[in-house]
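Hi U.,

Before I forget, here's the chain from the pilot set. I'm dumping it here mostly so it's searchable later in email.
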Amino acid sequence: MIIIPSLPEDVSNKEFLSKANVVMRFFSNIPGNLIEKFISAKHRVYFERKTVRFLCKHFGEAHPVPDHLTVEDKEIGGTPCRLYIPNKETRKSDGALFLVHGGAWLYNRAKYYDETCFDLATQIGCMIISIDYRRAPEVTFPVPVNDCWSAVEGFATQIYKEYGIDKNLLGVIGDSAGGNLAAVMALRDNVRKTNYLKCQILLYPATSCIDVDSPAFHECRAIYKNSVLLQPKQGTRAVLLYLGLPATKRNIRKVMSNACTTMEVRNHPDYIKNFDMNLLPEDILNSRHYIPNVQPSPDPEFAEIFSKAAFQPEFAPLFCSDEEMKGMCNAMVVSVQYDVLRDESILYAKKMERLEVGVEWKHYEKGYHGIFTIKGCELHDQVFGDVVQYVKKQFGMVQIEEEEKTDSLKQFADVVLRETSIETYKEDPRNNDSGFEDGTSSISSSDCQRTIKA
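Structure:
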């Protein structure tokens, strides 16, 4: 008997997720489990890549390039990139935004984010550079990090001139594993004092990946276990493959039981200070599903290997030193309720706040992992709109827009005042009570505002 896992009752876009829950269960999860069991985790990844592309090709919608954009594939710093360039009418900023796609470091390519990049380039009015970094398991950490950095550095030092971009208006955005890489780009930029980036937008980023006992994991097991939403086992498999460690059933079990870190790591000041669950909001800590487990003893062999690979800032940016983060570029951090990465995303924002990094943390109660790139609900539009507004603000576009609106309002108010004056004069210039001898009205600014709003 095949059981379809449940979804949270109030999750956004539930109709779509319910369909995806069934489709992915039959086409990906069940055959993927068999492939992983009898062959390997790597072959599961290869199978899932082909399955998702097949489903998208035959059942998804095609997204032709809009007339107001030009798409160009270009190698920057040795890394393939996909550029989305607004035409003169659409371009509203000389800034540019690097996009680092998600997909657990294993899935997706730059071209699969076309629709998202079309929308970003159109709504912001700036150039988007989507980085097509190499993926695990073909390569392992830190290759994807270096691929992304080569693209950022190559564009910020040379290529920006070709497109008339202001090198002081460069930002980076990423979701999930892409959020991890985007965070690492901003961190490396700060550590190396290169100052390439003005801002970073981190959408439900992976920032620690070495603990599965936070409230988010407990809620996943209680509310949406084995569903289409991101699962602990799925994330653990990705982490091991990305780090170049054997993603065996045994190793996955060790990570998921929290026996993967040494006592040296657990007692490290950066671990104690930054992975403190008490920093989370009270409503999360008070979840009826959260019952903290006793930390198990480290696995004698595996913990040493895993800790050496994972406990480094360019893999787990949450554990960077205070000195490495201080002075980092401004950030927007997005967390969503139904996501096993929720708590580490929040803790990363809390660390930024503590170190006085300019950060805007936004949490979406009914959101789920992946909502930024999946259309079909109002909450997606809200998240996307909030990101667009943040980038505009960082690129100095909001002030310009507000000034343009103010000028338009002033012009409209002048017209209203002139028309009101003319009508008042025409009605009865002898019996006016306006307070002015010429019969003009003494309409107040508040009256003018009400007139405009009406």
